[in-house]
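Sample intake sheet
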Amino acid sequence: MAGTTDHGVTSVLVANRGEIAVRIIRAIHEMGGRAVAVFPEDDKDALHVHRADQAVALPGTGVAAYLDATALIEAAVSSGCGAIHPGYGFLSENADFAHRCAEVGVVFVGPSADTLTMLGDKARARAFAVEQGVAVMPGTTGATTLAERRRLPVSTER
């Protein structure tokens, strides 16, 4: 980051908790950036809260607080963050969340919303891989009924 990035981002909201948030905060600091943590009341004493440059309280408690996309985006905007790093789990693979970040001008640190949408649909992801010439395991190309599945050959090799 060293002051700025390709996107002009110097402050990043870390939308996660625990060890992953601590590691992301450390990386942001190593790049010269400002890290903003989020926390519900029951995580107010967590390490990631104390390692960040700023911490913003979230409504709710527990895991549910970290899944509140609206609260996370509001926290990013109100704290002057140009990006949200979701870590892993929680909202990291949520295409709607990535779209919502883009709508308010906040960079989603991760795959694009379009990529998340495509890869979140196994049939579409498989079709895309085939189009790109990637070898894929034999299988169905869409939703399959139990009767259709029973007609497929079964491999006993391991």
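Comment: Residues 1-5 have pLDDT under 50 and may be disordered. The longest strand covers residues 34-39.
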